[in-house]
Amino acid sequence: MLEVVGVNSVAELFADVPVALRDRAHLSLPPGASEAAVRARLESLAARNQGAQCRSFLGGGAYAHFVPAVVDQILQRAEFYSAYTPYQPEVSQGTLQAIFEFQSLVAMLFDQDVANASMYDGASATAEAVLMALRVRPKRPRVLVSRALHPHYRQTIATYLAGAGDAEVVEIGFDDSGAIDRAALRAALNPQTAAVVVGYPNFFGVIEPLDDIVSAAHAHETLVVSATAEALALGAIKAPGSSGVDIAVGEGQSLGVPLAYGGPGCGLFATRSEHVRLMPGRLVGETVDGGGRRGYVLTLATREQHIRREKATSNICTNQGLIALAITVFLSTVGKQGLRDLALANLRRAHGAASALCRSGRWCRRFSGPIFNEFVMSGGDVRAAIRAAQDRGVLAGVPLGTWYPELEDAMLVCATEVNTDADVAALVEAIA
Amino acid sequence: MSGATGKQAGLLLDEPLIFERSRPGRSAFQLEDDVAAAAELLPPELRRDRIDGFPEVSEPDALRHFLRLSQWNLGTATTFYPLGSCTMKYNPVLNEAVARLPGFASLHPLTPDELAQGQLELMWELEHALAEICGMDAISLQPAAGAQGELTGMKMVRAYHVERGRSRSKVLIPASAHGTNPASAALAGYRVVPVEGNRIGLLEAEAVRRAMDEDVAALMITNPNTLGLFEREIAQIADAVHANGGLVYLDGANLNALMGVAKPGHMGADVLQFNLHKTFSTPHGGGGPGAGPIGVRDVLVPYLPTPRLVRDDAGIRWSDAFPQSIGRVRSFYGNAGMHVRAYAYILALGGDGLTHATRMAVLSANYIRKSLAADYHLAAPTTCMHECVFSDKGFENLGVKTLDIAKRLLDFGFYAPTIYFPLVVNGAIMIEPTETESKETLDEFIAAMRTIAREARESPDTVRNAPTRTPVSRLDEARAARHPVLRWRKQRQVMSDE
After folding, report:
1. Residue B5 has pLDDT above 60, yes or no
2. How many CB pairs under 8 A join A and B?
3. What percent of chain B has pLDDT over 90?
4. Do A295 and B472 touch (CB under 8 A)?
5. A381 near B CB under 8 A
6. Residue B219 falls within a domain, yes or no?
7. Can you give the CATH number for the domain in which B313 is found?
8. C-alpha closest to that of B122 among B376, B274, B334
């Protein structure tokens, strides 16, 4: 090869790199290792994540759920995982058709007209939804964000908005039901308000009264953005689109994706067709080939950075392709009946766990609003209770004081279909 | 390679949409729970019935559906994928296995730090390895992809200037940059000012000096640039930016050309992003998930996203106690599953192996550059780094364009190079072979490219009508955009947003 290239050594190929740089470039890293040695090192690290073996009632934006074996079987197909963005559709129909199916499933899940090919995660999808709402309502610089929206999502919105125009975020508090304070919301809405953003269910597990929120917002021609961190809820609770939500986003991790310490997940993004050209992210559309055969391509790319550069609707380049595939396989496998059954099982287990904790006498529900699979319990020193439970191999919940000083005595508890009756009994015994 | 004519070579089975396979009552899933009465736990106005249109298929049907779809894809595992600027190297299978260890895959992100020490140690070590590779002072693993890393970096640039009371409004970006650069700068609130490269596409320090003023917040520069050329004046360019109080953002998309050869931190870069799915072998996944950690020099450390890893006698933990931080760009800590894979890759190769990877990637690119120089017009007549850029110059009078050449390559069983990018080259054909392809594969590719060049002269229709051996022929992209059908509906209808 050197002969063809016309050099005597590989080093000559780096002649354009200044010597001053080359002389200091040595990598002070350990030497390479065999497959067996790498595996052993990774296994020893994995073994030190004792939390993965505990009975866990952790939720708060990431959820442990059952995943049918078919899902990972498909994800391990290297034809899927070792491909890239389908720039050449003729040899990427697998990825493209799967994304088209994903878009269809997500649109149905949210009851919206159209969904994109996915975003990075629920938090960044929510921030992008806010930016999109500001494009749809360009003369309105005000955004109302529920304080009961996931704290990471609120922080991500703040980061994305910093310096991007002069939009102002106003936080709206919550009431005793754990839902957005509707009186405060109505008082804050005005003709300057581009959007209202709420969690659905929200960070406290409470299912927000979207119908009321939408009618209050739409009276001011304000858009409503709903963010669903627990997408499985949509198997049992009213779809955001059915309440008139304008942009429905969420995190898809619950739908067939392992926890993996919080990532990769998958941002879900859906809206009404009238807004599609202001939407961020990739879109796959149906078309035909030269012979009239059905096929799929990336489309409406004139919104995107590789065409529009600084005038694009977002800087996002890829989607979460493989995770979107996992969700597509998951939803296809559990199917129409299974999705609902799974969602109802979560509802049942969470209510059962909440009741068991309440019966113990020490704990009570902090909020009265309807819940899906997580809820807030209060009852004294939650951090001490969580530590005590930890010693018994139970991860009892997430202390809320971290983000809400007014909820220092409260924790968020989640129970899904993977939490057995024995898990719940162990939880009650550990913290009651 | 001579058989690239006629129709399909093997069996390619038709496969409808999953919704079209659906039959009422079929299912691939059962649950132990008795959920009959569970809906009553919800107020009536919040209940939802089964979702009309959702698939009803058996497990064999579901498996067959997605397996057939997989066969309609080319990936690096099945063929050479010379997509320039995307670094489509081999994705080691071991990395897939270790990322699935339950200790990683089943770890909840809100697990108390003391019960996640293995994960935190991995992330800590990955941060330090990346810092060593790029010569920067600190790393954040949080950004989910390269473009989000760019945005994070530019938000930090902004925070840096705001804190110094200098509200600067412009960012300089060479015309050859990836589209994400201007889009990220704009999203961070900056106005983009293009700077032109010289005759062969390199940025000259003098051009930067002329463009610099007190209103420029940063220069975003890719090195090697998208022509595959090392920016020789990078140190003087960085000096020119710094002299006016600006910062240098180095796009690390092409880091595969630099490992053990040159460190961005020594070039004057203040901030850069890594694309773990390029340089560090994590799978591209058909378009994600990626991972886009950022590295910074000391002046930008206070602005890194939170939470950040800190280490003390008790172990490694997350800390939010960084008041100057720009905050979060996403939930939790980044694409941790990708961090596991990238860490395994770095362990397997080691410092010498990474350096060797870079050297072989550059050798392979130059081998292709030289081998095809007689058949295709080179955008820059000089030694390249990890990729080389040709164009369709010389084919115009034959009526053959870059797009045709790319499509014809598919008939030979190769994925196509990146085409029509960088924008500074008309009809660009950008080839990045990476270090993981054998000489034999490169030779087959070179032979195919030469055949196509000959076909363009002798039977241009063969090239113009390609591909013919793929599951579908050229697709009508204009129709897709004019009449968007973006989802399946039970009653088929065209979306009417126009």
Report:
1. no
2. 690
3. 92
4. yes
5. no
6. yes
7. 3.40.640.10
8. B334
